[in-house]
Amino acid sequence: MSELINPFIHFQIIKDYRQESKVEHKLSDIILLTICGVLSGHDGWDGIIDFGNARLDFLKRYGHFEAGIPSADTLSRVMGMINPVALQRSFIAWMKDCHTLTDGEVIAIDGKTLRGSYDRSKGKGTIHIVNAFTTANGMSIGQLKVDSKSNEITAIPKLLDLLDIKGCLITIDAMGCQKKIAQKIRDKEADYLLAVKGNQGMLEQAFDDYFRMDMLQDFDGKFL
């Protein structure tokens, strides 16, 4: 069982750009609330606030929250000011403290869209995130925001660079079935299990030809 360790020491590396005299909610509290909310399945600011109000006692075990739960506008504004690289590194360092990967552990990588992140009036596009999590307990061990001019195919190798996955099995959906991604995983001394679909037509056909369904049936027509 993984133990949640206080993340404050890791969040200290993240610079707070707000005027100190006007700060009502600590930066570490805002980050903790946002991360825990997203990891609990909430992909919009309103959902994260609902989570915070429902689990305030839990959050106070690891943060301060002297002014309660911040508003959606505060969360959006402050999280938008944070250096994403510093946030990624502090989050991954925190998760390493909470959970030590074991040899052969399965890590799933997938993408998700942060609901409510699109704001046309402010010129903000939808935020897409690539997430790596352990399938044994669903704990996220790393996240990376997908660049607005890029996609998951280019973001996945960057996320892998941030993770220590030696000896693990990495699973990714068909989007990640790419030579460079497979090679990156092998370079990190891990194994991979990638889904094959129509985006790799020749490879999909090769699998269909080699692993024919009729060859998996016994003489009674039942699948082995």
CATH hierarchy, class of the largest domain: Alpha Beta
* Low-pLDDT segments, ≥5 res: none
- The overall pLDDT, averaged over residues, is 85
Rounded Rg: 21 Å
Can you tell me the number of structural domains? 2
User: What is the count of β-strands?
Assistant: 5
Amino-to-carboxy terminus distance: 36 Å
What are the secondary-structure elements, in order, as H or E?
Answer: HHHHHHEEEHEHEH
Class of secondary structure makeup: alpha/beta
Strand content: 5-15%
Largest sheet: 5 strands, mixed
Number of contiguous helices? 9
Strand order in space, largest sheet:
3-2-1-4-5
Overall CATH architecture of the largest domain: 2-Layer Sandwich
Report the CATH topology name of the largest domain. Answer: Nucleotidyltransferase, domain 5
Backbone shape: elongated
Helix proportion:
25-40%
Give a topology summary.
Elements: H1 8-11, H2 27-39, H3 45-54, H4 56-60, H5 72-81, H6 84-98, E1 106-114, E2 127-134, E3 140-145, H7 152-162, E4 169-172, H8 179-187, E5 191-194, H9 201-210
Parallel strand pairs: 1-4, 4-5
Antiparallel strand pairs: 1-2, 2-3
Helix pairs in contact: 2-3, 3-5, 7-8
Domain Transposase IS4-like: 103-219
Protein name: Transposase
Domain H repeat-associated protein N-terminal: 10-95
